[in-house]
Write a structure and sequence with these properties.
With 317 residues, this protein is α/β, with parallel strands linked by helices. The protein has helices spanning 11-19, 32-38, 54-57, 78-83, 96-112, 114-122, 149-160, 179-184, 192-198, 218-223, 241-251, 292-310, and strands spanning 2-5, 23-26, 44-47, 65-68, 87-90, 141-145, 164-168, 187-188, 201-204, 229-232, 254-257, 281-283. It has 2 domains: 2-94 and 292-310, Rossmann fold, CATH 3.40.50; 96-283, NAD(P)-binding Rossmann-like Domain (Rossmann fold, 3-Layer(aba) Sandwich), CATH 3.40.50.720. Strands 8-7-6-9-10-11-12 form a 7-stranded parallel beta sheet, with helices on both faces. Strands 2-1-3-4-5 form a 5-stranded parallel beta sheet. Helix 1 (11-19) links the parallel strand 1 (2-5) and strand 2 (23-26). Helix 1 (11-19) packs parallel to helix 12 (292-310) and helix 5 (96-112) crosses helix 7 (149-160). The structure holds D-malate.
């Protein structure tokens, strides 16, 4: 098969794809504007940050499979894919540990104001008193929204740090408490409002759907305790960003954010988001899944999926 890999991908996995008899076109800087041309004659497309809009899917007669090398498929126009007979698959679970690690790193960093600390010290300033007011993590109530693979990994880390972990069932799937959640000691609360009222850390681990869009809105933020921490390593659109800024300004809410609504598609450039420069935000560049371990695990699964597809089986659709 002819395969276009439109984002960075480990070399060993590209070699494997070629050894399996495929013809691989590795164009890691292909943006959505260049996709149609780059896709010419390809049956399989592998993307990570590159968006796949309807215009691309409506203009190809060879494409049969799009693989998003991550868990979310919200960057791909699924309706257009389905009307053009193109399968859209994701790679669930393989980057869960990496994303949970980043969410937890943001929590620790916010509590100890690590980024401000480092910036001050680098500038030659010594201000020990300013940095002596951390609340600490142990004993805090941490609310986890979404207990899929990433949410569970995050919950396990939070529990290991001695927090009380609370969660709601996935509002979308009515997901029942899993054995793993019980083993971690997760306590389920009745609804989102209760979670917001009682937890001073809220971590989002839900896919972007019409139900979850703006889930963290003005009403919900009105209920979180002053000084609460919101962690978003899922999708920017889960949060009403204006409402979050308001909560930061009126009640000292702080946020660890890896994902933004106005996220650039290209790997380098600039970001136009009021959250990125806000002093109450520790923001990162949508790098939750960006560890060598995670990217290798995702790539190995992509190779397995393409091989299976060649043999007539569609995995993870
Ligand atoms: C995901 O959907 O798992 C992440 O967005 C993937 C990524 O950034 O690589």
């Amino acid at each position: 098969m002819r395969i276009l890999v439109a984002d960075t991908f480990p070399e060993a996995s590209l070699t494997e794809l070629t050894e399996l008899g495929n013809e691989c076109f590795y164009r890691p800087d292909t943006g959505s504007e260049q996709l149609s041309e780059a896709l010419s004659g390809c049956e399989v497309l592998v993307v990570r940050s590159t968006r796949v809009p309807a215009a691309v899917l409506d203009n190809t007669d060879t494409l049969r499979l799009v693989i998003r090398a991550g868990s979310g498929t919200n960057t791909i126009d699924r309706a257009a894919a389905s009307r053009n007979g193109v399968h859209v698959c994701n790679v669930p679970g393989r980057n869960a540990t990496a994303v949970a690690e980043l969410a937890f790193a943001l929590l620790l960093a916010l509590d100890r104001q690590i980024a401000d600390n480092v910036a001050d010290l680098r500038a030659g300033r010594w201000d020990k008193r300013r940095y002596s007011r951390a609340r600490g993590i142990h004993g805090r109530r941490v609310g986890v929204l979404g207990l899929g693979g990433i949410g569970l990994e995050f919950a396990a880390r939070a529990a290991a740090f001695g927090t009380h972990v609370h969660a709601i069932e996935n509002p979308e799937r009515g997901q029942p408490a899993s054995d793993r959640a019980s083993a971690i000691g997760v306590e389920f609360v009745r609804n989102l409002d209760e979670l917001a009222r009682t937890c001073d850390v809220l971590s989002l681990h839900l896919p972007l759907t019409e139900t979850t869009r703006n889930l963290v809105d003005r009403d919900l933020l009105a209920q979180v305790p002053p000084g609460a921490i919101i962690l978003n390593t899922s999708r920017g659109e889960l949060v009403d960003e204006d409402a979050l800024i308001e909560a930061m300004e009126t009640k000292g809410v702080r946020a660890g954010i890896d994902v933004f609504t106005a996220e650039p598609e290209a790997s380098a450039g600039s970001i136009d988001s009021p959250l990125a420069g806000h002093p109450n935000v520790y923001g990162t560049h949508h790098i939750g899944a960006s560890t060598e371990q995670a990217q290798q695990a995702v790539a190995s699964e992509v190779v397995r999926m393409i091989d299976a597809f060649d043999a007539g089986t569609v995995l993870h659709c």
